[in-house]
Design goal:
By secondary structure, the protein is α/β, with parallel strands linked by helices. Helix content is 35%, strand content 19%. The protein contains 25 helices and 27 strands. Strands 1, 2, 3, 4, 5, 6, 7, 8, 11 and 12 form a ten-stranded mixed β-sheet that branches. Strands 15-14-13-16-17-20-21 form a seven-stranded parallel β-sheet, with helices on both faces. Helix 12 runs parallel beside helix 15 (419-432). The chain is elongated. The two termini are 46 Å apart.
């Protein structure tokens, strides 16, 4: 026995002579090493050992020498005992190692490192092979000029499900064919020198969890122009069982592999279309039957005879009526979309990636565009990538972005793929195009879907989650919180480096109902540009006089969360108490509000149409700015009204109380679920404002000072600088 140790590894010798044979001396040259990684196979190991023993008998008969290298990676005692007590007929050189990786890829690498043979074949502990697989593959490898990977031509699934796959050698494999799935099997034979260049990846890399180490290995081979050759009439009998890695990875939605050179833009584009144009995609035999194959091929019949003697589940009757599936490499819409992304983004090194549902003029978009502008001010040389993930009716508001931004609209470049495939493409982008960028996400459906699909990957990156508000509903005049956002933060807070709130109120609420003690959090206020138009000195105005028309401003969007139905009730009550007051409504025309307001509309509502910026609806003649909302963070439009010197009347929801201090910087309306009661609360505040112009003047001065102090460009810049330092320090940058 040869020994080899790693930290936490022990080496053991079988309790009885394995096979009763003499071990090969160090001077003898071994042609092939079979490297088998064992875990918890138990009695399923017995037919596997018998199958490989048969194959070694064929190798010895052909004049080859072989050794058997086994790694027991956290194997259970039952599996170890079965191996120790097995009597081999042909295998004479056996090396066994105990190790503690808990990882198939690393266990394989370790076993391969113990080989001194010219060629290596990988093996698992629950599958069988045709007796001539090793000798035919070894002969093909010896006759091939240069490095290549040799795989069985057929994969016969058995056990939990039955199927037959036939693979075809492709002289010019394309990177497009390997984007969405692996074209090949997990059993390979190749020259040992290949493993000095390419190794199996571990399931964890940089704290991210990956799967499909065989798929990754194949991709690395293709990226290095190493051909994949399927050896004619050789079989892998692949056992399917519920607890296998294939089932576990599928159930856990681990459909992505570790970063591979194949998906780096330069390699992906080099191996994409030219190779697709050169190779033939139609094999000579398509849709042939098992019965035809079994009848015509002596080798196939011998394989069934040999393997059936070890495993009764492998028998011709299980496949009797089956049609063989020819595994023809396919180019998916996902692979084409990723090709388009590579062409679009290749060559640009982004410092930050922002994930937005859409880029409109809402408060959330403005907030994040302000964060981007602050980053641009701090590091103008590094571009920012903005990924838009949800359908949008209007063109993105590109003017909100700093000049170093580039927008990737998934609705354009990925329009032919579903959400799952889109997420897969985005992970590839993050792995290979922006591997070191900071990630910025919100609680939008787009970002939440991505994080839920790939939490360990997001956890491996420096990332910030931005939270603005939580969602509420009114049912029978009672207010209920919708649990979607708080549940997401509770379940996935650990996936983010830092969580940013735009208001202290929501942070306090989440700290009360969620366990955020181990989570890094901060509050970064939004910012508002100084108002450029002259601001009215309201101290010089006379109080509201009966008979004069007084105008109020409402500017928002007709959406349920903005509670536009309050406008109708406020307007109706105003007709009785203040018939000379008009409300100018910006955000849409009357039709846009028809779903929220009862007809006929009160005549004191004047619909002014949509607006792009606050300047579009500003007038010095407005006596107050009315703001309605069911839930909110810190609304930009309130800060803009304050900056313009218009007194604000707003509800006490979300973070509004942090800027609207009642009778100090505005008038704060007590929240009521009942529409009539809430409208009455507004009228109380409005009446107070209209009756006391001294109060109005004081409110506008205080509000303007508050905006300048806490919501300036300089204040946010310092906060963003601290955020970037936190993200980079936590990852050692």
């Amino acid at each position: 026995m040869q020994s080899g140790r790693l930290p936490g590894e022990t080496h053991f010798s079988p309790s009885i002579p394995l096979g009763g044979g003499d071990y090969m001396t160090a001077q003898e040259e071994t042609t092939l090493s079979i490297v088998m990684a064992l875990h918890r196979e138990g009695p399923l190991l017995l037919p596997t050992l018998a199958s490989y023993d048969d194959a070694c008998g064929e190798l010895l008969a052909a004049g080859y020498s072989v050794d058997f290298i086994v790694t027991f990676d956290r194997s259970d005692p039952h599996t170890i005992t079965i191996f120790e007590e097995y009597i081999f007929r042909h295998i004479r050189s056996i090396k066994t190692y105990k190790c503690d990786f808990g990882d198939l890829g690393r266990a394989r690498n370790y076993g391969i490192s113990k080989s001194s043979a010219g060629f290596v074949a990988t093996a698992d502990g629950d599958d069988l092979i045709s007796p001539d697989y090793l000798v035919r593959s070894l002969q093909a490898a010896q006759n091939h000029r240069g490095l290549a990977v040799f795989m069985p031509e057929y994969l016969f699934s058995f056990g939990d499900s039955y199927a037959i796959n036939k693979y075809h050698t492709n002289a010019f494999p394309s990177s497009l064919e390997y984007f969405s799935h692996n074209v090949g099997v997990s059993r390979i034979l190749c020259h040992r020198d290949l493993f000095t260049t390419i190794k199996y990846h571990g399931k964890e890399l940089n704290n991210a969890c990956y799967a499909w180490e065989d798929w990754h290995f194949t991709c690395e081979c293709i990226s290095n122009d190493i051909p994949i050759i399927f050896v004619p009439e050789t079989i892998l009998f692949y056992r399917r069982r519920p607890e296998s890695n294939t089932h576990r990875f599928s159930d856990a939605k681990l459909d992505h592999i570790a970063p591979s050179r194949l998906f780096e833009p330069s390699t992906y584009l080099r191996l994409a279309r030219p190779r697709m144009q050169r190779h033939q995609t139609s094999p000579k035999t398509v849709g042939s039957s098992f019965l035809e194959l079994f009848t015509e091929s002596h080798n196939i019949r011998n394989a069934f005879i040999a393997c059936n003697s070890h495993e009764a589940q492998i028998n011709p009757m299980s496949y009797y009526d089956m049609i063989i599936t020819d595994v023809i490499p396919q180019v998916s819409q996902s692979s084409l979309a990723y090709e388009a992304v590579c062409e679009y983004l290749a060559g640009t090194a982004f410092s930050d990636v922002f994930f937005l549902p859409f880029l409109d003029r809402s408060g959330g978009s403005k907030y994040l565009s302000n964060i981007m502008s602050s980053i641009y001010s701090l590091q103008s040389s590094a571009p920012i990538l903005v990924v838009i993930g949800e359908p949008h009716a209007s063109e993105p508001a590109m003017d909100l972005l700093p000049p170093n931004s580039l927008v990737l609209d998934c609705n354009i470049l990925m329009e032919m793929v579903d959400a799952s495939a889109r997420n897969h493409i985005i992970i590839k982008i993050l792995q290979h195009i922006v591997p070191n960028a900071r990630l910025h996400m919100t609680t939008s459906s787009f970002a939440v879907d991505l994080v839920r699909a790939y939490p360990s990957f997001i956890r491996s990156r420096k990332s910030a989650l931005y939270c603005f508000s939580t969602v509420y509903h009114i049912i029978a005049d009672n207010l209920y919180e919708h649990g979607s956002i708080s549940t997401f933060i509770r379940d996935f807070a650990s996936s983010f480096t830092h969580i940013v709130y735009d208001n202290h109120t929501l942070l306090r609420h989440h700290s009360k109902i969620l366990d955020l003690h181990s989570v890094s959090t901060s509050v970064i206020y939004t910012r508002v540009a100084p108002f450029t138009q002259p601001i009215l000195d309201r101290a010089s105005l006379n109080p509201h006089q009966s008979g004069a028309i007084t105008y109020l401003l409402w500017a928002s969007r007709p959406a349920p969360e903005k509670r536009p139905e309050l406008l109708g009730e406020i307007a109706r009550q105003l007709l009785e108490s203040h018939p000379d007051v008009r409300i100018c409504v910006y955000g849409g025309n009357a039709n846009n509000f028809s779903a929220f307001l009862k007809k006929p509309f009160p005549h004191n509502l004047q619909f002014m149409g949509p607006y792009t910026s606050f300047a579009d609806c500003f007038s010095q003649h407005y006596a107050a700015f009315l703001y309605t909302s069911l839930y909110d963070g810190i609304p930009n439009v309130i800060l803009e009204a304050m900056s313009a010197g218009i007194p604000v009347i707003a509800p006490n929801v979300g973070g509004i109380s942090e800027i609207v201090h009642d009778r100090v910087s505005g008038l704060l309306v007590s929240h009521e679920s009942n529409l009539t009661a809430m409208a009455s609360n507004y009228l109380v505040k409005l009446s107070l404002l209209l009756a006391d112009h001294t109060l109005t003047a004081g409110i506008t001065r205080t509000a303007l000072n508050l905006v300048v102090r806490d919501f300036s460009f300089e204040a946010q810049l310092l906060s963003v600088q601290a955020l970037l330092a936190r993200l980079d320090i936590d990852y050692g940058d």
